[in-house]
Write a structure and sequence with these properties.
single chain, alpha+beta, six-stranded mixed sheet, 2 helices
């Protein structure tokens, strides 16, 4: 079962969008926006684990700062996660101002709250995967 949801937040002259896919009990969230969508950071989390983040290098050699967005979205959702969650973030605003930088995390929180509200109204799969038991092996 896969369900999809898209939501956006706008502030300080730019918009960020979260595209969410519910894959059985797992979530894939892609957050992009500004002037140049990309993949700058990936954060993984589950209700029973701490978040982990990978930051990718930017075109100028520094590491992308998108982990501020991906980590905030993941942290906001942790308490209600039905399974695993991957949050990718890539927001670039050309010649970004301090005001626009300060707006990124509040927009990420707004997106996370919208995702949380949507997720709480979705039917979750009750089917569990089956695994081989004891000495059973593929034939």
């Amino acid at each position: 079962m896969q369900l999809h949801f898209t939501t956006s937040a706008t502030a300080a002259g730019y918009t960020i969008t979260a595209k969410v896919t519910l894959i059985n009990r797992d979530l894939m969230i892609v957050v992009t926006g500004g002037d140049f969508d990309h993949i700058g950071a990936i954060t993984t989390i589950a209700s029973n684990m701490e978040l982990q983040t990978i930051r990718f290098p930017s075109h100028d050699g520094r590491l992308h700062q998108d982990h501020y967005i991906s980590e905030r979205v993941a942290a906001e959702l942790k308490e209600i996660l039905p399974g695993n969650c991957v949050v990718s973030a890539g927001v670039h605003v050309n010649q970004i101002s301090k005001h626009q930088i300060a707006s990124a995390v509040p927009m990420a929180v707004q997106l996370a709250r919208q995702v949380k509200d949507w997720l709480q109204h979705q039917p979750l799969s009750t089917t569990q995967p089956q695994y081989y038991q004891g000495s059973q092996h593929p034939q």
